[in-house]
Amino acid sequence: MKNLIIKYPVATYYILTFLISWGGLILLIGGPGRINSQQTNAPFLNLYLITVAGPIISGVLLTGLYYGKKGYRDFLSRLFKWRVPVKWYAIALVIAPLTVFAALFALSLFSHVFMPGIFESGNNPIASSFGLPEGNKITLVLFVFMLSLFNGFVEELGWTGFATPILLRNQNLFKSGITLGIMWGLWHLFSNYLGSADAAGSISLLVYLPVMLFSFLPPFRILMIWVYRHTGSLWLAVLMHASLDMFWMLSMPLSLTGKERIIWYTLWAVVLWIIVIIIGIVDNKKKVD
């Protein structure tokens, strides 16, 4: 097992992460025969916790098996590395809200249904999903902030804490980001498939799910790796992931069809890819100079 980890560390991380998350979900919903796109009776909190258990368990466990005690010391130093230039905090925290609101405000010029939910009155979909009091935006923002920070922490201990540094040894920024971004999206597939029929509406899940998982996640992962490559801060990766989750949830319009959601995610992805291309051009120019 240790030889396999040493030879194929990132592949081992993917396999173990999927086994924990997907295997746990299958057990929780009652077996393979219960897998479908309709709403499940399993408690949402349990579904969520078993899903996010995959990256953190895999990342922490494999760090010890691959690097030993020295790996854990390095792991903690990167996790608590908060002294980085302020500009990187600004970049890490602003990219998500800037891009998601830009996409939605642009679309809202053509249809009001795309107006970000946090600016609307009415039944907020996030508040309804978690049983929060309707109309209390302060409670909503605080809850989403804490949930996003927790989610960024448990996920990035694996994706950035373990997988990213190894990928960057042998691959450039773009290839590392695409590889990890696709696997990151694929890892979300099972949990997003459960209960997805209502959200997709008349759109086939063969179209809806790929757009949902592989539109904005890969370019955002490239940007996350770009920030990490310049800072070496796992803490900043946690915050950047938290920013993505927070503003994605807060910006979510009150009511969208599957087709409208695809339009939103596609335009959001386009905005992110434009930023990725600009960064690539600037980085190449610096290398030439």
UniProtKB/TrEMBL annotation:
Protein name: CPBP family intramembrane metalloprotease
Organism: Chryseotalea sanaruensis
Keywords on record: Hydrolase, Membrane, Metalloprotease, Protease, Transmembrane, Transmembrane helix
One Pfam family this sequence matches: Rce1-like
Superkingdom, taxonomy of origin: Bacteria
Transmembrane segments: 12-33, 45-67, 88-115, 135-153, 173-190, 202-220, 232-250, 262-282
PANTHER family assigned: PROTEASE, PROTEASE-RELATED
Domain called CAAX prenyl protease 2/Lysostaphin resistance protein A-like: residue spans: 139-246
GO annotation terms (biological process): CAAX-box protein maturation; proteolysis
Lineage: Bacteria, Pseudomonadati, Bacteroidota, Cytophagia, Cytophagales
GO MF term set: endopeptidase activity; metallopeptidase activity
